[in-house]
Each structure stands twice: as structure tokens, then as C-alpha cells.
Amino acid sequence: MAKDKTNIYDVAKKAGVGIATVSRVINNSENVKEETREKIIKVMNEMDYRPSKVAQNLAKQQSNAIAVILPSFVDHFFVEVLKGIQDTLEKEEIDLILYKINVDENRISKIMDIVHSRKVDGIAAVTMNISNSNYRELLQSEMPVVLADEKSKNFNSIYFDNIKGAEMAVDYLVNSGHQKIAFINGNLEHYNAQERLKGVEKAIKKHQLIIEDKYIKASDFYTEDGYKSMQELLEMPQSEWPSAVSAASDNQAIGALQAIEERGLKAPDDIALIGYDNIELAKYLKITTIWQPMYKLGQLTIEVLLKEIKGELKERFEKELALSLIKRETA
Amino acid sequence: MAKDKTNIYDVAKKAGVGIATVSRVINNSENVKEETREKIIKVMNEMDYRPSKVAQNLAKQQSNAIAVILPSFVDHFFVEVLKGIQDTLEKEEIDLILYKINVDENRISKIMDIVHSRKVDGIAAVTMNISNSNYRELLQSEMPVVLADEKSKNFNSIYFDNIKGAEMAVDYLVNSGHQKIAFINGNLEHYNAQERLKGVEKAIKKHQLIIEDKYIKASDFYTEDGYKSMQELLEMPQSEWPSAVSAASDNQAIGALQAIEERGLKAPDDIALIGYDNIELAKYLKITTIWQPMYKLGQLTIEVLLKEIKGELKERFEKELALSLIKRETA
DNA sequence: CTGTTAGCGCGTTCAA
DNA sequence: TTGAACGCGCTAACAG
Lengths: 331, 331
Known about the structure:
2 copies of one chain form a homodimer.
Chain A: H1 8-15, H2 19-26, H3 34-47, H4 53-60, E1 65-70, H5 76-90, E2 95-100, H6 107-117, E3 122-126, H7 136-141, E4 145-148, E5 156-159, H8 162-175, E6 181-185, H9 191-206, E7 216-218, H10 223-234, E8 244-247, H11 250-262, E9 272-277, H12 280-284, E10 288-291, H13 294-310, E11 318-320, E12 324-326
Parallel strand pairs in A: 1-2, 1-3, 3-4, 4-5, 5-11, 6-7, 6-8, 8-9, 9-10
Antiparallel strand pairs in A: 10-12
Helix pairs in contact in A: 1-2, 1-3, 5-13, 8-9, 10-11
The first copy, chain A, binds a DNA duplex through residues 3, 5, 7-9, 12, 17-24, 26-27, 31-33, 36, 51-52, 54-61, 118.
Keywords (chains A, B): DNA-binding, Repressor, Transcription, Transcription regulation
Protein name (chains A, B): Transcriptional regulator, LacI family
Domain HTH lacI-type (chains A, B): 6-60
């Protein structure tokens, strides 16, 4: 195979200098005579030469790229986080390699694959629940890591208080006069779902109410899950219907809303409904919800990761992002 | 800096073989005695060795990664395309590097940066309007490229018929009895917007109607643009209001819907509204729209790109994906 | 200021 | 079946 890409030797030869000097101008080193620099730049342009990132990576032992690991591309929550990530990354000259790891896969193992590939300088893992697994290997690898949407004592982490969020939702419903409240939760394998259940129970207890098991649903965080759960609720005799429903995600709330409207009912008149996340859809569907600042989560995650990569982070970073209730029309 | 990563030499030494043999088992070469292979695998596991992708890339002159270039992370259109891309890529062991190129940037130049970086084996460029620019350099680079949402005679391309789509929308409105139709277009710098305008004009002419300039708006494809355009329309005397509006994107349609409802009006009773794209939001907001199969676009794009990379594509690939009208409640 | 040389970690002939 | 040696393209001492 004839070599077709011009390399640093070609440039050096044509410019009549050594490759080190060419390398110096590539890397904007100070110690190059202005005259020489200009000449080399001229030659590089003539030959349309650009250094091979791959070779640079190998030599420098760094890649100018980070990995972003997501559990899903479907969920608007993650899309919003991704926006924050991308916008922040755009300012730097750093590539974004996107990985999706499904819930049923061995997360740590997959992440270690990424670590060992040397393709990235750091990893942002979103909602990966690493902390409960055998993360030692990852820790020891000394790869810069930031966990987003997950609290951790061992890694940098930026997270929300799920207990508080769920509690806020129920508080709001109770303060609006509701007593019979149902909770449509996500999959309890998710730590976030467990926490939110705790928050609901805490609030219920605080208000000296009780919540029967039949009012607690748990499937997954998606729209269809919310739809089904709401249907089940509405299949009960009307006298047993909850007067308000709290969903663990806006996606579920949207599904629930569908189920409500299909019955000819309305939120909040017949059944009040509150979501969780504040995805864009919630705004247009006017769903009252708990706002998790996802964009900011992505933004901050990258800022911290970049600092860690540059060695500017002196100690483990840990931060809780504040939640807030967005009052709209469904509750 | 002490070397901390175990490399192929470490493995070879510990296993008492040459690095070539280790390399052979890494790459599943046939010509290795079973006994030797097992021993090497054992050692690799013990040392938790994994080959450096970067070094492999440099040696093999390929990267097992592709670039996906998008104009935006915000737009649901692109998110949907991205889903199709990711799902298709997931089956292969190929990394996805995401690039965003803004409209005001020199696209070809940016793309050539990616080409020369050697970080990817192929490029999927979505809605990049490469064909009108000076693409020769890209063509000559022989980098596998697929253009998505853009028709091209020089690159593999998968696209929609924008003229037909806009025409379908207007046809539908006219057939529903509307005569005074407004068109909220995207930025005319986009080829797609130009085409859609043509489609509208074609349909109007076909039905022997006329469309006054004041009924043709052009800003950008986003929600706020649709909102503003609709506001302008509604600022005219009520007698001059269009009875139906066709928007060039669902985002615009959503904004337009907002403007309509804020005035206490309803679609379709007061003003009929049809969108374009069929993003998820449109479904929940019950917006009648023209469906561009975005997911399929992403899927097919990657399939073609992978074939091209593998050298299985004998000739330039070109395909138009069919549009369809999704009737819902706003028109 | 500049050139030589030795890596970076792996793939791949070419002999053996 | 195997191993030695060279090449991939570039960076980083080191010497000059």
C-alpha cells in the first residue's frame, strides 16, 4: 500500500529542517526562530498537512477526548444532560465519545474496557449506579471520573436529593388538600427509585396519612409504564381512585396523563398529577413537576471532569444540585 | 514517570513468548498452538492486560470509530436520528464520536479536521449541506462519508423530498377546505427551507390559489421562531388571518400553537395547524404533521457507512425515504 | 534555536 | 508455530 498521507517527515524534508522543529511548530513551542516557523507553516499549508491525532495520542499518552456514558438515548432526561455536556465541551478542543450501557450489562466491566482502551482522558458516567458495585478496579485505574446523578464517597459526584424531591411533590399535593395519593415509581432496581419511595413514605408519615400498597406502583421510568400504572389505578372502583398522583418521571406523568384523558377525565380537576424532571415536554403539556436541573448537571460534570484531568482538582468533588417545584396546570 | 500500564512486552515476557505471538492471540490469529494461546490468555487475565486501542489504531491505520456530525443537539429531529444511529452502531464494536458544527462555521474545513485526525474510519454528516460547498478536498480524501438528510451526486446520501413534503401539507389543508394559508418557514439559508418553499408554491399554484407575501414567514426552525411568526400573523386584522398555517418544523408548530392558545384561540377550530417532522412532542400535543422517518434515516445512514468502510459498497448509494402525513387534531 | 534519537504500544513481514 | 525487527506518526529529552 503506497503511503498517501503526508507525515511529519515529508514536511521536515520539504522545509529542510528536522522533524523535531516541525513538531515544535505543531505544538506552538516558543523556541523556534520566527523565520523557521513561518517557513514550516507555509510548507504545511502547501502540503495540506495535519498531524495525526492518533500518533499524537500515542506519543503524548493522552487523547483529548472524554467518554460520556449514558443508560439511554431515548430518555429526554439524558438528552438534556448531554446538551449541557456538549455545550461545555464545545469551548475546549475535546472530543466526545458516546457510550451507552444498558442496565442489564456489567457496567464496571464495560467501563473498564473504556479505561483500558486509552481512547479517553476521562469519563463522565450518568446515572450508572457505580457506587454499589465492585468499583475498586476503576478507582485504582486513576482514570479521572465524574459520576453524574449519583452520590458517591469514592468518586467525584454531582447529584440530586431524591428523597427530598419526592417529598416535595407529596408535600405539595397534601398542601393542596389531597389525602389519597398514589405514587407511580420507577424500577426499584434503580437507586433513585428506592430513594424516591423513601421520600414519599417520609412525607406521608409526616402528614400523618397512610398510603395503601395498591396506590404504589413500580414499573419503569418510561411513558408506557406511567400509562399502564395509571390504567391500573383507574381500573379500581371510582370510589377508590386517588385524588392525586405523583410520578417519578415526567415521562411517566405524560403516560398517566394520556390514561386520564382517555377516560374523559381531566387533571387536576378529576385527578391531580405531578411529574418529575421537568423535561421540555412537561412545559408544553403544562405538567406540574419537580425540576432537576439536568442541563446544569451536564455542565458541571464536564467542568469538574476537565479540572480533574488537568490536575487542578485538589480533593474529591461532591455537590448536590437544588431541586425546585415548577407549578403548572396539572396539580 | 514510572510506567504503570502493562503492555504487550510485559505479557510476552511473563508468558515466555515473543510479542508477535501475543499479538496473534489478541487478534485471534489462527496460527497459534492451542497450548500457547491458552497460556497467553491466562497471563493476560492475571495481569489484567488489555491492548491499547490507540496503539492498535496507529499500527493498523484504522480506528474502529466513526464521526457523527450534527448541526445541533437541541433539536429533537437530530436526537431522533441519533437514536437510529446509536442503535445500529451498538451491534458493532464501533465507537461513536459526536461532533457539532454550527451553521456559521466553515463546515468543510471542520470536517477535514476530523478526516485528518485519523480518529475515525468514516463520517456520517447530518443536514450539513456539504454539496453546495467546496467539497472536493473531502471527496479526494477517500474517507467513507454518508450524507444524511441531504441529496448528493457525489457522496452517498439518504434524504427526504422536501418539495413533496411541503406540498403534501398544503394539499391536505386545501383539501380540508382552506384557502387562506400561511407558511412559516425555516431559515432560507438552509437548502431544505428553500425546497419546502418551492413545495408550498407549487401546491398553491396547483390549486389555483394565491399566497400573499405577508403569509410567508421565514426565521428559523425553532419553537420561538414559530411563536414569533404566529404572533405576527395574529397581529394582522382578524379578517386577514389565515385559516390554516403550515409550519416547516414541529418545533415551529409548537411555538405557533402556543401563540394561538395564548390568544384564546384553538386549533383547528380557529386556525388549523400542520407541522413537519413528527417529533415525539408532536404526538403528545396532537399536532398533525408530515412524518420524516428520522430514526430510519439514522439507521440506514450507519448501515451504508459501515458497508462503505468495509469496502462492501460497490457504487454510490442514494436513497429517498418516503414521507407521510400523520393526521392528528390540529388540522 | 535545532537535529538526533529513543520511545509510545502494537501489527506485520520475513526468517527460522 | 514462533520471534526479531521494522514501521505506524509523533513527542520529548539530550546534545549541539
